[in-house]
Amino acid sequence: MKVAIVFPGLKGTPQNQRSIGDIYQGETPLDVITAMQYDSMFTRGLTLEEYVATVKKNCSRLFNIHLEPKGKGAHQLAKSLLTEMRKAGLAVIIDPKK
Questions:
Q1: Beta strands 91-95; 2-7: pairing state
Q2: What is the pTM of this model?
Q3: How does pLDDT run across 8-41, given as a tens digit for each residue?
Q4: What residues contact residue 63 under an 8 Å CB cut-off, 6+ apart?
């Protein structure tokens, strides 16, 4: 799967001023989320659970977007985070097969 991250702008930025950011690729949602995590030097050392909590906190604090990822185990949690990001308009699946 190939996923594009969408940056909504800071609080108060109009919805039509969103921009496409990095594109991540992987076989599974866990591969994509792991690639996102390792793209930042600040989150490389975190566990998946810590990374998800960081993304959740930053989305709320910076963009006033509230994500509620849930799941038991790494695969479910990663899939849930990606689903939540898609629902919020923060991620777009470009190609589900690549």
A1: antiparallel
A2: 0.84
A3: 765 555 455 556 778 999 999 999 999 999 998 8
A4: 8, 9, 10, 11
What own/partner pairs with CB < 8 Å and gap ≥ 24 does 79-85 have?
79/28, 79/29, 79/30, 81/29, 81/33, 81/52, 81/55, 82/3, 82/29, 82/32, 82/33, 85/5
- Tokens representing 44 are 């490389």
Which residue type occupies 6?
Answer: V
Q: Which residue has the tokens 């308009």?
A: 89
Beta bridge partners of 2: 25, 95
Helix (H, G, I), strand (E, B) or coil at 91: strand
Tokens of 29: 């949602």
| Residue that has been written with the tokens 């990095």 in this structure | 22
